[in-house]
Amino acid sequence: MESRKLLPFTLCLLLPCTYFTLSHSAKFGNDTDKLALLVFKNQITHDPFATLSNWNDSVHFCRWNGVICGSRHERVVVLDLQSKNLTGTISPHIGNLTFLRKVRLRYNYFHGKIPEEMGRLYRLQAIGLTQNLLQGEIPVNLTQCLELRILDLVANSLEGRIPLELGKLEKLTELGLAANHLIGPIPKSLANLTFLREFSLSENRLSGNIPEELGQLRQLRMFQISSNGLLTGSIPAQLFNLSLMEYFGISENQLIGEIPPDIGFTLPNVRILLLGKNHFYGSIPSSITNASKLEWIFIPFGQLTGSIPQELGKLKNLVRLNLGMNELGNEEGNDLGFLSSLVNCTKLEVLAFNNNTLTGVLPSHITNLSSNLNYLLMGANRISGGIPNDIQKLENLILIGMEKNLFTGQIPASIGLIKNLQVLSIFGNKFSGEIPQSIGNLTSLVELGLDDNSLQGNIPSTLGNCQNLQRLSVANNSLSGTIPKEVIGIPSITDWLVLSANKLTGPIPVELGKMRQIIHLDLSDNRLSGELPSSLVSCESLEFLYLSEVPEGGIFKNASEISIVGNGNLCGGPAALHLQKCTPHRVHSGKLWRRLYIRILIILIVSVGTCAILICSILILHRRKTVRRNDTTPADNEKKFQKITYAELSRATDGFSSAKKIGTGSYGSVYKGCSGELLVAVKVLDLQQRGASKSFIAECEALRSIRHRNLLKIVTSCSSIDFAGNEFKALVYDYMPNGSLEKWLHVDNADDQNSGRRELSFVQRVSIAIDIAQALDYLHHHADPPVVHCDLKPSNVLLDNDMTAHVGDFGLARLLHDKNPQIQSSLSTGAFKGSIGYVAPEYGMAGEISTRGDVYSFGILVMEMFTGKKPTDEMFMEDLSLHGYVNRSIPDGVAEIVDSKLLEEVFHHQYINRATTSRKQNNAQECLTSILKIGILCSAEQPRERLDMEEVVVKLQSVRKMI
Ligand SMILES: *[C@@H]1O[C@H](CO)[C@@H](O)[C@H](O)[C@H]1NC(C)=O
Ligand SMILES: *[C@@H]1O[C@H](CO)[C@@H](O)[C@H](O)[C@H]1NC(C)=O
Ligand SMILES: *[C@@H]1O[C@H](CO)[C@@H](O)[C@H](O)[C@H]1NC(C)=O
Ligand SMILES: *[C@@H]1O[C@H](CO)[C@@H](O)[C@H](O)[C@H]1NC(C)=O
Asked: Has 791 been annotated as catalytic?
């Protein structure tokens, strides 16, 4: 104490103390406080509630709004300006309010740095700065405030590392650093904070292991490190032994291990348990049912196996249970026993066990589950049985996800009584019978996915009452009758209406034109007749329209019957039409193209007259985005359906702030954000840009059913209206901490903040090339339908924490509906726009889109990776391309063309240790040559001369074995 009393004086000796010389009496007295407050006010540029309006001479400063003085002296002890929407910086003069105990500035718009001068406030007990826009590092000087109990800096934009010195604040009970941009490890020194009750470091970019020493923090109630993405290793066992723990959140990291078998006994007070999106394996311990206070169990996206504990129903307080996206199941046909006990959980709102391998019959008493249930996700398992007839007892359901199982039977009429239902997703089963009329009572319905079943009868016209419906698909059933005009004219349908592959007859109602916002319409593979209504032109948003199967023969054969008068601007199209080839600048104008195609279509149909089948195929991409439901968690779904998604995304990215911007993609900007527990990248499409909407759809469609470790995973999407009322579309992906390959190859890393970053080694480059090749091989040969990426280049290859490559940006991707993946209608190139340097030469000549085009881009990319030269480098002119440059230097001149950063590793190793490395070094040269040869073969001028990705993978793998 003694030394602290002396502090003002000591400070004076050390600091200039100009004020002291002016007025001795004012030094660190009440006048100083007044002055400090006035300067503080001066730094506030916007005060919408006029909170600081009485901060003037008319009132004593101790009675100014938000100011509290001590009772014995006129000194400021509390500054409380929480939630006043203040904009400005925090003045360093705050450091002169030496009697301050509490600073409460939460929920404002303070920007700039936290002033170091706050370190002089040695009486300070609480700092609350949550949810501002503060930048810079956490000032080490704050660690001089040894009286601090609460340090709450959550949700700012703070950077740098966590100061080791924080371990000095021994009285701290609450440490909140979550939702900033902090990097580096969690310091061991934090284990000294033995009074700590809340430890919140989630949503940063912290890396490394969790220090074992943290297990000493016996007072912890909250341990929250979720969504750092980069934390690795196992969880120190002691952390599971902190018996006061109520909130245990470690999800979305790279943590590995099993859930301790006695977790229910060692964490008896835990209410929130967030373990998902890590690498947990093994089974869910049955002891978990002893943690009777549990409200949330969130363990999706893992590798959990075995059965789900039968006694989960003992957890009477359970509100959310999410075990989706694991490998749960015993294959013995009785995996659903746990559902019986869950009927005791009367508070249950979210129940998700989708995307596992659970087998069994859905018990009919599932309708005895909590009537509070909002989300029920069980898609993509092996569950049989049917929808219980009394499903209406679950009257508060918002989402039913039962897709991709073995369900049979009819859709009960009682489903029409669940009046808040927004999503009914039961596609990919064996449901039979008719679609009940009562479905028309579900007026909140946004998405109805009934495709891939055995439904019969008519499409009920009552569906027309569902005036909120955005996505409707009944494809691949045996539906007959005509298309009800009520259904085809639902104006709210924005995303898709898919009626294909049924037995529908009769004409297409003119009401079609009411769906002005529809992007995809698929009526193909039916028995429709009559004329295509010209009202189709009213569907102004119809984005992706291509006429595959527009056959060479058929109505197109007799070109003389086709009138194209007055369409002098047409280009491309079937050869028989003798239209001019499209030049690239026309190709850019997507909308014009769309209109013209529609016009050709109408003219063709009208002039041919009684063509029995109308749209030979309006092939619609993105027929069933519903499939992606499987990949979303209830939390995502809530975001998707409960809250306005634009607002959510806006919040997750600090209002799409430039600080969160991590790049610019082909059709918009990419932001880093936190969606609940997930660290994500959000791509916001610039819809002003032509083709952006189409790109959105193409990407959704391409990614809806494909899954591969080397493809960037889409977490969810958002199609909404922004605060200004404009259309807004965004895609949300897994966040890739190591950024794009482009950056690694070409950006000078010297001044990169991310200290761990080095050059890519030769071996790393080979691995990345293999990753990319495997991704393409999967897309071309194993995805159904095959996918052509169409825009492969280094900026579309992203690197995760382990430097595993993930191919992303499917904005230009094409699905190949043709059985033969090599062939695709040339019409599809209509709106094509690849990237200069990487795009195959045949695309420039309106050639066909095929997998061979991707192979070309891959060849270029490989040569770029190992030469360090972009195909667009100035040195490549008319007569010399990257391909030619590499080709003429092989094999003897490779040393001249190899990326200079690899020179040492590949060529000069021998001088260091000839005896042991010469063989290796020869191999390295040989490998390099082999790889460059693969690049040359892939980028051959003639598509048919190029390698196939399957061969490329094999070749690259054998190269890797040589190293
Ligand atoms: C400072 O304190 C003195 C004595 O307590 C008092 O007379 C004076 O009015 C105060 N000045 C201000 C600006 O509050
Ligand atoms: C204060 O900020 C909140 C949150 O951003 C906002 O909704 C509100 O409109 C603001 N109020 C004023 C008066 O600016
Ligand atoms: C108060 O703080 C400011 C900025 O840190 C400093 O310039 C000033 O001299 C301090 N002292 C007084 C008595 O105002
Ligand atoms: C921060 O702390 C250091 C070390 O105690 C001190 O020298 C420096 O003056 C402090 N900075 C401010 C602005 O108080």
From this structure: yes
